[in-house]
Design brief:
single chain, 438 residues, alpha+beta, Beta-lactamase, 8-stranded antiparallel beta sheet, 3-stranded mixed beta sheet
Length: 438
């Protein structure tokens, strides 16, 4: 009998062989994939490491709930060399967003709100929003709804768009300054966000934004719990996602991968400067992720492991349940995975993000709740399926799930910015060429 979240006792599976991969391991042919063709992935990924483009890569493919490929290559840190492992912890950045989408739908199923409700009903700081125009600020023509926040059509912005007057206001307010955010609570951050004008009228444009930070705060208000506590109680503990959190406890800091960017002359340069601390006779790196933050960002705050995220993705692919524990109903999962953008937003509605991540300039892409959806596989120019749902993070972490093929794929590394190299696209292509049956 399937158990609801409130009924279960979390079980630590970290010491079992099964949990090493997050899901049971199986021979590829038993789930319609070619073991021989899957071996092509390793040298293709290794070519990025050999060219000093990334320090290391972790790639995962699962089909019909079984892991058929789980490969770690290269290093989590190059100086001193620290091999990348199955339990390496990664900065998820915006790969936090699909988790927030699920959290919102859990709260929705609990009867806290309707998706078309104005968010100002619960967060009154959003009551009287202004919209930026070249001739000055004007009143918003309608309220921001929860559905618009979930689909990046709220009119909110991000502070890193160049030549964008509203983005510059975000920067001036300190919303893009990592150090400035350390002193803010989630409530403080969202109130600062609400005090700034909108980029566009709500519902009129798709604009990648900090909307999921607002949704994290919404969950806090309606549940009466911190966002972290809500996630742990309603999602992480029930799914045995034992390494996913807003910080890395000191005993796990040695497992946190180093973050890199491309240097001025190519190659890798370590960033996110750390100091060293001693724990259990070992020196471990300490960064801002080494302590619990006051701002628990629903848009970009989480860290986690591949095994944890694989279990999260499989829950979605299963229609809201995993290991006889139901997190969401199938109808709610369908809302998450369906395209919510209309034809009025054009053939390439995600193109404003495509200037940073070229993959989003394609036709055939729409948007669900907190992740993109393939609406036309041929137009999108890939070998995948209509109905694929995917998203990723700033440090080149990506995942996708394909309901038609009962498939999950994921690639994790730590290189800023995402989209620097076509690593995800290469894994995606090489996954589908290995499918040989149902």
């Amino acid at each position: 009998m399937m158990k609801e979240v409130e009924e279960i006792e979390p079980v630590d599976k970290s010491m079992t062989e099964e949990y090493r991969y997050g899901l049971p391991r199986e021979e590829p042919e038993t789930v319609g994939m070619s073991a021989k063709r899957l071996t092509r992935i390793k040298p293709a990924m290794q070519s990025f490491i050999d060219a000093d483009k990334v320090p290391g890569l972790l790639t995962v493919i699962a089909r019909h709930g079984k892991v058929v490929h789980f490969e770690t290559q290269g290093y989590a840190d190059t100086k001193p060399p620290k091999p990348l492992k199955a339990d390496t912890i990664f900065r998820l950045y915006s790969q936090t967003k699909p988790i927030t989408g699920v959290a919102v739908m859990i709260a929705y199923e609990q009867g806290h709100f309707l998706l078309n409700d104005p968010v100002a009903k619960y967060l009154p700081e959003f009551r009287e929003m202004k919209v930026y125009t070249d001739s000055g600020l004007i009143d918003a023509k309608g309220p921001i709804t929860i559905r618009q926040l979930l689909t990046h059509t709220s009119g909110l912005d991000y502070g890193w768009y160049p030549d964008d007057p509203v983005a510059s206001l975000y920067r001036e307010a300190g919303l893009e300054d990592a150090n400035a955010r350390l002193s803010l609570s989630t409530e403080d951050y969202v109130k600062k966000l609400a005090a700034l004008p909108l980029f566009a009228q709500p519902g009129t444009q798709w604009r990648y934004s900090d909307a999921m930070a607002v949704l994290g705060r919404l969950v806090e208000v309606v549940s009466g719990k911190t966002y972290r506590d809500f996630l742990k109680e309603q999602l992480f503990s029930p799914l045995d996602m034992i390494d996913t959190d807003f910080f890395v406890p000191v005993e796990k800091l040695h497992r946190l991968a180093q973050l890199y960017e491309v240097g001025p002359e190519g190659g890798l340069v370590a960033i996110d400067a750390c100091t060293n601390v001693m724990h259990d006779k070992h020196t471990v790196s300490y960064s801002n992720y080494g302590k619990q933050p006051s701002f628990e960002s629903g848009g970009a705050g989480l860290v986690g492991s591949a095994t944890d995220y694989l279990r999260f993705a499989q829950m979605l692919l299963n229609g809201g349940e995993l290991d006889d524990v139901r997190i969401l109903s199938p109808t709610s999962v369908n809302l998450i995975l369906s395209n919510h953008l209309g034809l009025e937003l054009g053939e390439t509605p995600l193109a404003s993000l495509g200037q940073y991540v070229p993959d989003f300039n394609r036709k055939g892409l729409g948007f669900g709740f907190c992740g993109y959806v393939v609406t036309d596989a041929i137009a999108s120019g890939t070998a995948g399926s209509e109905g694929e749902y995917a998203w990723g993070g700033a440090a080149s972490t990506r995942f996708w799930l394909d309901p038609k093929q009962h498939l999950i794929g994921m690639v994790l590394t730590q290189l800023i910015p995402d989209g620097t190299y076509p690593i995800f696209e290469r894994l995606h292509q090489m996954t589908y060429q290995a499918i040989i049956g149902n």
